[in-house]
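sorry for the late reply, my laptop died twice this morning and i had to redo everyting from scratch. anyway the thing you sent over, i finally got around to it. pasting the sequence first so we're on the same page, its 248 residues, then the predicted structure underneath. double check i copied it right bc i was rushing
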Amino acid sequence: MELKDKVAIVTGAGSGFGEAIARSFAMEGAFVALLDLRLAQAQRVVADLPKGRAIAVQADVAVAENVRFAVSVATRAWHSPSIVVNNAGFTHKNRSCLEVDEETFDRVFSVNVKSIFHMVQAVVPAMRDNGGGVIINIGSTAGIRPRPGLSWYNASKGAVNILSKSLAVELAPWKIRVNAVCPVMSVTGMFQDFIGGEDTPEIRAKFLSTIPAGRFCEPSDVAQAALYLAHSDFITGIELPVDGGRTI
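ok and here's the structure:
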């Protein structure tokens, strides 16, 4: 239990990657604040974790006040967070770049990129003053080897990937490590938007053919990667593909 009594914040923790990450951290002994726009979903996960080790907080990570409030709730419940996983994500439907409206574009970048800005502002001062911490951003293979039809989403994840490297360099003197985990497509909440249409065996086969390992990413794959990066004291500034060979 190498994370015993450390405080972790996981965004988008009510399902998918975030849920798996929150569960793995709690099983390693961490106190975990599960942030999600859908409070009931986060509460469902908390109810299945060891009592007193997790709390659910409703938060829109694109809103600074929500992020600051969530960090204060976690701090009051236990102590200042030393681990943050920026997992919450949003995408537009797979379609021509000309068919994505400005409101959707703004939401993609607010949830995927601006949320990291808000979280850094909220947690880094305490991490600095407490001797260090870990920030794990869930990027994507979309920011390394983009697929057509997802241009604006790809761009947002490219920003997450490079931002993780830049923050790693800037925050290293304060012993704050920053890394990106880059999953390939997963059959989670945004899957149908990624494929851009009906989920059929033929469509799945088409996308699976681009992944050498022959399967989609599972939430447990991402949780294992996040747990590894939470433990690894000398690894910072990497894009870690969890992709079955997609980006080779």
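The mean pLDDT is 96.
thats about all i looked at so far, will dig more tmrw
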